[in-house]
Amino acid sequence: MRTMKRSILASTLAMCCAGQLPQAFAQDAQDEGGRTVPDAVELDRVVATAQKRSESIMDVPMGISVIGESRLESINASSLTDYAAYVPGFQVDSGGAPGITSIALRGMAPLGTGAIIGTYIDDSPINASGNKQRTGSYALDLLPYDVESVEVLRGPQGTLYGASAMGGLLKYITRSADPDHFEFRAGMDVNHVGAADDLGTGVRMAANVPLSEGRAGMRVSFARQATPGYVDESKLGLTDTNDYEQLAARLAFTFNLSEAVQLRLQGLWQKVDADSVAEVGLDPDTLRPERGMLDGTSALLQPYRNEIDFYSATLDWDLGWADFVSASSFVSTRLAVTQDASPSYGVAWPLFGASAGTAAFDLDMENRKFTQEIRLTSKTGDRLDWLVGAFYTDEDNDNAQSVLGWDGDGDALPFNPAAVIALPNTYEETAAFADVTWKLSPRFDLSGGARVARNTQWYNQLTTGALVGEADEVGNSSETVKTWKLASRWHLNPDAMLYARVATGYRAGGPNLALPGVPSMVASDTSRNYELGFKTQFWQRRAMLDVALFRIDWSGLQVGAVTDTGLNYLANAGDARSEGAELSFLLQATQGLTWGVNAAYTDSNIGEQVPPESGLIPGGRMPLTPRRSWSTTLDYDFDVTAGWRGKVGGGYRYTGDRTGINGYPIEAYESVDLHAELSNMTWTWRLYVRNATDEQSYLSISEWPSALTGEVAQLRGVPLQPRTVGVSIDYRF
Questions:
Q1: Which of 198, 239, 449, 519 is spaced 20 to 30 Å from 356 by Cα?
Q2: 3-class DSSP state for residue 71?
Q3: CA dist 84 to 65, 66, 364, 545, 607, Å?
């Protein structure tokens, strides 16, 4: 009995503590009515802010993709999984609803609990920097409305973006308020998801209002997207249980305080509310559905809610000889999710005098994060460009978890809740960084950068209940981390550039419990990226090509370890390596006809030194990482009648086979997206189809081990959303 209870304690705490060259679409010119129209048979300049100054991505010496607003609108994208496959080397695995999201880039997957891909809104980091908030499994997934573009920076970005960007960066660029022009737009859509009984609906609006011409402007937007359920829970006698609603609102102001000073303020709010997540029961031996491709086996519904409140203030001051920027932000991220833990704990109730039944694992987390960054950036010069800055963040986090149980008759256990665990934690960091580019000639330059960051953390583990016993343990840590980068560019001619880059990144460590035999903290794990790339425009700038070769060495992996008494902690052990190639190609063959290709080959493997209790396979493939992935797009924009234009297009995306975090194989899948639209100066009618071939596959696989035996009791897979056909209408003036 004591051994079994110790096994239950170990498994419970394991659950609780674990926890394109431009993207292939150029931005078209806009007519005076705001409608996108092709300008000339030449690709447009695409601008990115990857190096914290606006510049053409053809001049940025790193792998970067920019997904424009027009592409997001054409496929009616509502989450990362709708467009991630069109970015080379970018893998997004869903946990069954927007925001239950794991991100991998260039073969670097979120091992451990902390994030390795940074997430930003404009100049502000969003995700928690510590490793106690499960940010590796709950990445920022905005409903992309009133978003100007989405930037994906591939490879470590530790010098300019700090902690949690050791694999890359996902950056949402929002639309600023314009003091000079009035704009109003509104739209709605209706769609049908295969296997769903109800229709999906969406409404949206945005307005830009000059408050004082040339001096002040306001922008307001709102969007609601309702997605119908398509997964049935036959054990519960319910159908279409995974419906969810996304709400997004934003208010932004721009104040031109003088010719040299501009202040931008914004508030952004988003909520995702799901009745239950999309999960299907899989046979542990065959990995095939136990019932049907869209049939769940849960004994309880699994509701999920994610809310974000984000506020920022950015001051830009043109000093004449340099530009000063102050970026302040506060974000509150709240998450509540219930998981059906019956396979793990429902079987254990006889040990406590009750019949076997069901169990629910409830997770409630909140991250309150304040950040302040100041930086001074030189004007672009003939010989030397430089940037210096300082950064501060203060985070206060709550992490509350509980296990509730019911016996075989459905009655609540007399000792409910069976486990209560609180993991409050704090994170404070100060950093200084600098970046310098030395132009040795008009064609060749060298650049280097460095960052020094100091963080202090505090962590408290409080437990009570029959499953976990009574405990009150405290841990704290402090750490100084240094990152750097070196790069060179050789402009072969005005339209071709060869570059080489070495850059480092890190994920912050953190405190462990103050227990005998347990190290007081886990140190940061680090990455180093070696990259050689070539970017060019050719055929009178009708075509673009971006090719990159890379290798990333990942050292001191943060992995899970277990004490003799079943308590979990983090330790540094082993390493990993990822190497491969990426390609982006874009061609505007004739007026209005655009063809794009994005592809990646990634060979990513874990080292031989990882311990067995980490759950990783020594020498095995990195989870979430397909060796081969590619996509292609084709769009044609044409005149229909006087004043009306049409556009048709589509995309094909292929994601190769890979493994889940737990080592289970996930089959390759492919999907086709189509769209057509008719528009004039004011109205746009659009037809879109996502997953047009109704591909049936799984995006991720999770396991539920028995608390009694440790054997896998159940697997659950998240299916790709079935064919979705929709019609939308937008009005603007």
A1: 239
A2: helix
A3: 11, 11, 28, 20, 28
Cα 154 to Cα 105, 356, 450, 493, distances in angstroms: 6, 48, 18, 25
Residues contacting residue 286 through CB under 8 Å, at least 6 positions apart: none
Q: How does pLDDT run across 160-176, given as a tens digit for each residue?
A: 999 999 999 999 999 99
**Facing residues of 191 across strands?**
200, 726
Q: What are the φ and ψ backbone dihedral angles of 124, each rounded to 5 degrees?
A: -120, 130
- Using CA atoms, how far apart are residues 169 and 166, in angstroms rounded to an integer? 8
In this structure, are strands 295-296 and 232-233 parallel, antiparallel, or unpaired? Answer: parallel
Three-state SS at 628: strand
Task: Please classify residue 493 by burial: count the beta carbons closer than 10 Å to its beta carbon, then call 0-12 exposed, 13-18 middle and 19+ buried.
Answer: exposed
Q: Are 55 and 385 in contact (CB under 8 A)?
A: no
For the chain, the maximum distance between any two Cα atoms, rounded to a whole number of angstroms, is 82
Best CA proximity match to 218, nearest among 167, 181, 169, 257: 181
Please, is 399 exposed, middle or buried when counting C-beta atoms within 10 Å of its C-beta (0-12, 13-18, 19+)? buried
Count Cβ atoms below 10 Å from residue 629 Cβ, excluding itself.
Answer: 24
| Residue-level pLDDT at 519 | 87
Sequence-distant (6+) residues with CB within 8 A of 238 are 232, 301
- Matching residue, tokens 């390596």: 577
Tokens of 689: 């189809």
Angle value at C-alpha 321, between 319 and 327, nearest 5 degrees: 45
Q: What is the pLDDT of residues 602-635, one digit of tens each?
A: 999 998 888 777 778 888 899 989 999 999 999 9
Per the CB < 8 A criterion, the answer to whether 140 and 132 are in contact is: no
Calculate ∠ Cα 647-653-654, nearest 5°: 165
Residue 715 backbone dihedrals phi, psi, to 5 degrees = -115, 150
Is the predicted pLDDT of residue 6 greater than 70, yes or no?
Answer: no
State pLDDT tens for residues 475-516.
999 999 999 999 999 999 999 999 999 999 999 999 987 777
**What are phi and psi for residue 234, nearest 5 degrees?**
-65, -30
Buried b (16+ CB within 10 A) or exposed e, 695-705: bebbbbbbbbb
Amino acid at 115: A
Contacts of 647 (CB under 8 A, 6+ apart): 74, 635, 636, 637, 638, 675, 676, 677, 678, 679
